[in-house]
Design goal:
Number of strands: 33
Oligomer: single chain
Shape: globular
Distance between the termini: 23 Å
Number of helices: 2
Mean pLDDT: 89
Strand content: over 45%
Low-confidence stretches: 1-26
Structural class: mainly beta
Radius of gyration: 23 Å
Length: about 375
């Protein structure tokens, strides 16, 4: 495929200079890539449409002042694919759950439902999912149309029915299990529970379940965002601090001393920003720390990782709404840059696969939201 060039003003230039100054006018021209209206997300290889601000406003505008309820609702959507529904029955309670899905070849792929916002976590190598529902976590038997409870009803002195009978201030009924995080081989499950809050704990706990032996035990106070997995049996979690959790022993280790730190995990390297214009890398295995600097960077926000690549949502300058996407490969030590079109602002980025980004923008002064499909192999290296 022919390599593309960066666009600076109206002149195409190949950027190789060391220490190149980053600005909103420098960066790959997004208009050369595929652009679609709306917000897109990848679920098991399927491009799913998420509700835009305009979609949400339609629902708000439809609210009946007499009933207080909307007359229009958001709908699950995946492009032009037909959306079907699977009715799943919980075998323990008889309660039912309707899950939208599309057919992708021979696979039924459950997709995001903007009305229930329930998670559907695919179990690798199977047709089934983990779904948090009715205060706990279920495993689907997709072909039979059933939900089978996954967590034990009694463990470590806690009893599910007794816990769910509580009403807690600012919480309501505590959750027995929620936010499932399944490791790549589906041998371990991390999940959050509020069962300890019934005894006065304010933060709840993260537990691990061995999916082979069935053992369940607490591993961390509170919960957080999963940054990634190392060697299948170590999870890295970003909560009040950033922790690694050894799933086999249940031991957790704090990796940082700074609270509420934005970070990412690329291979076995924790990455975060200690000062503007730089990135700090810390080996989860050895604790070794290194720092790199680039004039492409200013204030790093979110980090999205795929293989050896790190995609950074970068604030171009202090107090500015303008952002760029800075890409860094930890193996090749190469940098790439995507800047905003002059009439748009970057609103987020995610990976579609090892070489493709979905980049979200919205047009200034409007509610129009766009998704660009960006092949990073077509971006020249910059520095």
């Amino acid at each position: 495929m022919k390599r593309k060039w960066l666009v600076l003003g109206t002149t195409a230039v190949l950027v190789v200079a060391f220490g190149l100054t980053a600005s909103a006018n420098l960066g790959f021209n997004l208009d050369t890539f595929k652009k679609e209206l709306g917000i897109k997300q990848i679920q098991e290889g399927v491009v799913v449409d998420l509700p835009t601000n305009s979609d949400k406003q339609v629902v708000v505008d439809s609210i009946d002042p007499k009933t207080g309820g909307p007359t229009k609702y958001l709908k699950p959507k995946a492009g032009n694919m037909e959306v079907l529904y699977k009715n799943l029955i919980a075998e323990d309670s008889g309660n039912s759950l309707k899950v939208p899905y599309v057919k992708n070849g021979t696979k039924d792929v459950a997709i995001y439902d903007p009305n229930t916002t329930l998670q559907t976590i695919p179990i690798p190598g199977t047709e089934d999912y983990l779904i948090p529902f009715d205060g706990t976590i279920y495993k689907t038997n997709w072909s039979k149309g059933t939900l089978n409870k996954l967590l034990k009803d009694e463990v470590n002195g806690y009893q599910k029915d007794e816990i769910l009978s509580h009403k807690l201030d600012h919480v309501g009924t505590p959750m027995w299990g929620a936010y499932p995080m399944l490791n790549p081989t589906a041998s371990y499950l991390l999940f959050f529970t509020e069962r300890s809050m019934a005894s006065g704990d304010k933060d709840g706990e993260t537990w691990v379940k061995n999916m082979v032996t069935g053992e369940e035990k607490p591993v961390l106070s509170g919960t957080g965002k999963l940054l990634g997995w190392i060697k299948d049996t170590t999870a890295v979690i970003s909560g009040q601090f950033i922790y690694s959790i050894d799933l086999t022993s249940g031991e957790s280790k704090r990796l940082t001393d700074v609270k509420a730190l934005d970070a990412g995990l690329v291979k076995n390297q924790l990455v975060y920003q200690s000062s503007p214009g730089s990135l700090t890398f810390k080996s989860v295995d050895s604790g070794e720390i290194s720092t790199i600097s680039s004039k492409l960077l200013h204030i790093s926000g979110s980090y999205q990782t795929q293989g050896s690549w790190l995609a950074i949502n970068n604030q171009v300058k202090d107090g500015s709404a303008e952002h760029s996407i800075v890409l860094y490969n930890i193996d090749t030590k190469t940098w790439k840059l995507v800047s905003e079109p002059s009439d748009q602002l970057i609103n987020g980025v995610s990976w579609q696969d090892d070489s493709t980004l979905l980049l979200l923008t919205y047009k200034k002064g409007t509610t129009q939201e766009l998704t660009y499909t960006v092949n990073i192999n077509e971006l020249e290296d910059v520095r």
